[in-house]
Design brief:
Elements: E1 3-9, E2 12-17, E3 20-26, E4 31-37, E5 41-46, E6 49-53, H1 57-69, E7 77-82, H2 87-92, E8 99-104, H3 107-116, E9 128-132, H4 135-141, E10 146-152, H5 166-174, E11 176-185, H6 193-206, E12 209-216, E13 224-231, H7 253-260
Parallel strand pairs: 7-8, 7-10, 8-9, 10-11
Antiparallel strand pairs: 1-2, 3-4, 4-5, 5-6, 11-13, 12-13
Bound molecules: S-adenosylmethionine.
The site of S-adenosylmethionine (SAM) has 27 residues, from strand 6, strand 7, strand 8 and helix 4.
Length: 267
């Protein structure tokens, strides 16, 4: 029986029985391994790290997208960096945005996700523009101004390492509108405290408001995940929630308050 194992530390991690292999190939950037597991459904992994499982991805994608988007009444331009699996974009389209730009370095991730995930119609939206490019390069050259920027990158390994650097953050600020919001996935509060401290140290120098929030993501290291909300204008627990899409599975007005309440162990 084939197993997939992800090590979260040298002595602990998560494993799945591999019931069916759907895709297994090294792209120009990383190993893409997609398989089926009876409990979690389809599981997408990159370089042996779980990116998403069909069963629990909603915790992560709803937490990444809706806390910021629910504060913006008419988001005109949205930028997503990473997010090649398409689910972040799919959640964004629940808000009827103006123009969405997706910048994904590895086209193979998009091709595989279009083929195997049920949210692939998000890729076909007419107001979505896809750039197969390094996110660092894209923001360095971008002359757009965005209402919302979402960094849905993999962990700081391989091509994603550069997405955790100061000059990248400064460029993000440059291409964000004055009343814009930047949201980043911010790793595991249990395993990645050093990275989180570094991210917060840099971003809190660049933005007036910089708030961690957390949500459960059962199949990510530690089972809870952190996000960073940065803005010079919006305060997530004071700004008015304008619009929440119907039929979400995790995010709601009450959850909005709960996820920004940081437990003592994290303060
Ligand atoms: N939710 C996942 C997580 O938290 O680890 C991330 C999902 S998404 C699949 C991550 C994507 O970021 C991958 O498709 C990867 O190719 C892309 N990526 C990594 N480095 C990048 C870069 N420098 N520019 C653009 N996309 C990048």
């Amino acid at each position: 029986m084939k197993e997939f194992k992800e090590f979260h530390s040298e002595d602990a991690g998560i494993f799945f029985r591999v019931d069916k292999i759907l895709f297994n190939k090294r792209s120009k950037f990383q190993k893409i391994f997609l398989f089926e597991n009876k409990t979690f459904g389809r599981v997408l992994t990159l370089d042996d790290l779980v990116m998403l499982t069909e069963k629990d991805e909603f915790f992560y994608h709803e937490s990444l997208v809706h806390p910021a988007l629910s504060l913006l009444s008419k988001p005109d331009k949205i930028l997503v960096i990473g997010g090649g699996d398409g689910k972040t974009v799919y959640e964004i389209f629940k808000h009827k945005p103006g123009e969405v730009h997706l910048v994904e370095i590895d086209e193979e991730v998009i091709r595989v996700s279009e083929r195997f995930f049920k949210w692939e119609k998000g890729f076909k939206k007419k107001n979505l523009k896809i750039f197969i490019q390094d996110g660092v390069e894209f923001v360095r050259e971008a002359d757009y101004r965005y209402d919302l920027i979402i960094i849905d990158s993999s962990d700081p390994v391989g091509p994603a390492k550069k997405l955790y650097k100061r000059d990248f953050y400064l460029n993000l600020k440059r291409v964000l509108k004055k009343k814009g919001i930047l949201v980043m996935q911010a790793e595991s509060p249990l395993y990645h405290r050093k990275i989180q401290k570094k991210m917060y140290k840099e971003l809190s120098k660049i933005f007036k408001i910089c708030r961690f929030y957390i949500s459960p993501v059962p199949t990510y290291p530690g089972g809870i995940w952190a996000y960073l909300f940065c803005s010079d204008y919006y305060e997530p627990l004071k700004s008015k929630i304008k619009r929440i899409p119907r039929r979400l599975k995790f995010y709601s007005r009450k959850v909005h308050r709960a996820i920004f309440e940081i437990a003592n162990f994290l303060k």
